[in-house]
Description:
By secondary structure, the chain is mostly beta strands. Helices cover 4% and strands 37% of the residues. It is built from 2 helices and 17 strands. A 7-stranded antiparallel sheet has the order 1-2-11-12-15-16-17, with no helix packed on it. A hairpin with a 4-residue loop joins strand 4 (39-40) and strand 5 (45-46). The protein is elongated and about 90 Å long. Residues 247-272 have low confidence and may be disordered.
Amino acid sequence: MGYGKSINGWNFDFSGNISYNDNIVTFIAPDRDFNPGQFFSPQGLEITRTSVGQPVGYFFGYKSNGLFQNQAEVDAYTNADGQKLQPNAAPGDIRFVDHNGDGVIDADDRTNIGDPTPKWTYGTNLRVDYKNFDLNIFGQGVFGNDVYRATRRFDLQMANLTADALGRWTGEGTSQHYPRLVMNDPNMNFSRSSDFYVESGAFFRIKNMQLGYTLPEKWAKVLSLVKTRFYGTINNALTFTNIVVLILKSVPVMVSTEEFTRRQGLSFLVLM
């Protein structure tokens, strides 16, 4: 797809492309229910798997339903027999979902909590020139995918945390997402794979920006040159995203555990 237009000496050319991907597994070996995927942490938490009817390498874990804001909410979260579903929970802890409805929060409640593969992948290219100046901007992005923030070393309780921990639960109504921070993690807020670690992986990145200037022909002849163009290039100039921890290099779309690195490059060249 492309579009071009000229206005008062300004020339604009825009082009773009977009692709859609919908992946569902239809068959795995008949002697198994699923194929195991990636594991995280010294405890070896299973965070991805592949099974029939689901996307390839989907994120695997517990679903949550906000945080307990007070003791009354903890006490009211019971099964059909009146037993607490999370007896070790306290205000500020994650409320995990009894996904299979058997009245117990256990490993059987783990399910699909996100898809690392982008539904949509797109690219854009913009060229603007005016007289002897030209500007080229190339962008690329994805959306419809999730990332798994495998950044917390819950086996090292005094390890550094990302800045979003400053918004943790510290009292009723202070947070609906980030649980309280306590030693030993009795509710296993951090030490089990859950959608707490999953967030949208959508981003748009300006991969390359190039500004150039072509020396007028009469000036080039004075220098005994046929054509001379000066230009500067910036790689990975800007990224627009809501991902909390972002280090951009390449996006591993099958198992996106945020193994990104950020690289910015600035170069100036002269072509003659």
